[in-house]
Amino acid sequence: MNYLVGIDVGTSATKTVLFDEKGRVIASASREYPLYQPRNGWAEQRPEDWRDAVLETLKKVMDVSGADACDVKSIGLSGQMHGLVMLDENGEVIRPSIIWCDQRTGEEVKDMLAVMPRERWIEITANPPLTGWTAAKILWVRKHEPENYKRCRHILLPKDYIRYVLTGVFAAEVSDASGMQLLDVPGRCWSKEVLKALDIPEAWLGKMHESCQVTGYLLPQVARAVGMTTETAVVGGAGDNAAAAVGTGVVKDKTAFTTIGTSGVVFAHSSQLAIDPKGRVHTCCCAVPGAWHVMGVTQSAGLSLKWMKDNFCQDYVSKAEEEGMDVYDLINQAVEEIPAGSKRLIYLPYLMGERTPHLDSDCRGVFFGLSAMHTKAHLLRAVMEGVAYSLCDCNDILREMGIQADEMMACGGGGKSLAWRQMLSSLYGCRVQTVKQSEGPALGAAILAGVGCKLYESVEKACESLIQPETACCPQEDQAEIYVKYHELYKRLYESLKEDYKLLASLG
Asked: I need a labelling partner for 241 at 20 to 30 A (CA). Which of 15, 322, 325, 459 fits?
């Protein structure tokens, strides 16, 4: 039997899954690590925590499965996008990684616009300069930590740092690199024009690959430590959303998915390059060679519900522990008892600023319409609805661009919630479908690994064979009518508060 490994380096944890060649889970392991927020709007993690989590979970899945090391053919990597990992000449980490949801780089975005017009940025990188993306973070370190910048010799994304740990190779692949603002997205290569404009040496960046190409093999010391062999290949892999697309079968035109993880994404495949000239959604190279994807991003999707749970739902947490339940199952039960619209309560999910459609790092979360009649359950439903309104904004822009899916796949932790899926179905006006395979990015990474080691003919053929649909939600007419009205008010609230957000940010 041949085996494949998918590793997903997420924001809250790393998950490693061992699959057989039929896509069946043989063993899985995960390890959590902290998120550090030194200041309001900042977000950092230690790359060493990711390294330790990957090595530990790789060893665990091999120990638990009893798989023969020689039968593990390839490893695929998935991970959180946009994070800045800086290494010195010895390959040592210089500073904590500034990760995707960090919003400190507003001034650096202005600097980027000063050296190149916004329209040219969109032509080359398919996106305007963004606070959460990697290029602005590099400029921030150069400006505020010149000694760290002086030591830098390598710049990697989170999963590509793991590649270096496993193989000793400095490499990148097109889907994740699309989110750095350094890639020529139409040409699928590093942009010499951008690198020259920002004065960033191309030698600091890894060699570019397609997602299913082999980039290296396990180092001897790593193979010994985790119970594998140096014949195990490591392929390019993909950013978390591109990997999730493969793991849910979204690899051809008219297919799309919504994921509700820490952030939320509406993601559509496109065999033709499609770029929003307004820069409201992101176009990136996808994990299928020669194709692209367009996605809108809600910064604080699952994060909003987790924030509510962690800070205000200790009673739910205690009850879940007593009854041996998942706390989110209890939350979903409570939310189901509240009517659509949460009794005239609206939540704006801007805990970490927002990307689609506003590109506003200053906006912050709001409960609008709060009254003495509202209970914790009303607030929880309002949070879920607010995230759903934001994701609907993303989908509306894709439709405006002529990219429309026949149905929407759902994945991520929030995608397991029937209540959340029903909200999305009623807002989108289409079926929202789940798949039997629940591993998402890890499975997608493993499929890419299988293509790389020739177990599968292509990404598309592998998905046709391995991905199976499961449950579906259809729009509820009465709910949809309610949400049309609430969504319109939701959109007006941002416009009403836009200048006040700037004032709030200026207060320090």
From this structure: 325
